[in-house]
């Protein structure tokens, strides 16, 4: 039986294209982080503190988003980083965190203190660092969409700007 070429899809277009996963908005991720935070039964049993390295644990992963628990002993904090194009949100569930967010032109940094219940959400190009500058441990819940694949790290330069340092894959 002859093939009806007109009915054959071009080789570059699969008959069943994978559905595009919609990327959740920062506002939606903030609601996700808040709803996890409101359920201590989901995160409190996972809380650990690491003196050598900050403790983190993935609480949930779906095709659309993931939720992480992070803990922070006094003095612990992140480097300046982005989220590899993912949007995100986080909320403090214990203690106090300080966030500095960055933009590409000077003045580069803006610092804010985040107490229990505070929520921050951000789009895919956001650059920040988060740390515990207080005297008691802190715990936070973070949501990202899509699932984190890479993160880039930056250093502050003398001119009050930030410069890309490296990009690393995100592992559990
Ligand atoms: Fe972050």
TrEMBL record:
Is Oxidoreductase included in the keywords of this UniProt record? yes
Q: Which Pfam families match?
A: CDO_I
Keywords attached to this Swiss-Prot or TrEMBL record, sorted alphabetically, are: Dioxygenase, Iron, Metal-binding, Oxidoreductase
User: Record's superkingdom?
Assistant: Bacteria
- Which InterPro entries does the annotation name? CDO_1 (IPR010300), RmlC-like_jellyroll (IPR014710), RmlC_Cupin_sf (IPR011051)
Keyword Plastid set for record: no
Family membership noted in the UniProt record: Belongs to the cysteine dioxygenase family.
Instruction: Report what the protein is called.
Output: Cysteine dioxygenase
**What species does this protein belong to?**
Streptomyces albiaxialis
């Amino acid at each position: 039986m002859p093939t009806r070429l007109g009915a054959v899809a071009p080789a570059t277009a699969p008959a069943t294209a994978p559905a595009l996963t919609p990327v959740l908005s920062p506002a939606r991720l903030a609601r996700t982080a808040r709803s996890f935070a409101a359920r201590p039964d989901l995160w409190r049993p996972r809380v650990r503190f690491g003196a050598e390295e900050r403790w983190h644990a993935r609480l949930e992963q779906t095709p659309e988003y993931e939720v992480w628990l992070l803990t922070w002993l006094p003095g612990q904090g992140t480097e300046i980083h982005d989220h590899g194009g993912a949007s995100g949100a986080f909320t403090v569930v214990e203690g106090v965190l300080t966030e500095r967010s960055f933009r590409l032109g000077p003045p580069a940094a803006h610092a804010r203190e985040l107490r229990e219940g505070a929520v921050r959400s951000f789009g895919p190009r956001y650059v920040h660092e988060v740390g515990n500058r207080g005297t008691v441990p802190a715990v936070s819940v973070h949501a990202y969409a899509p699932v984190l694949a890479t993160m880039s790290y930056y250093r502050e330069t003398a001119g009050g700007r930030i410069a890309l340092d490296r990009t690393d894959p995100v592992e559990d």
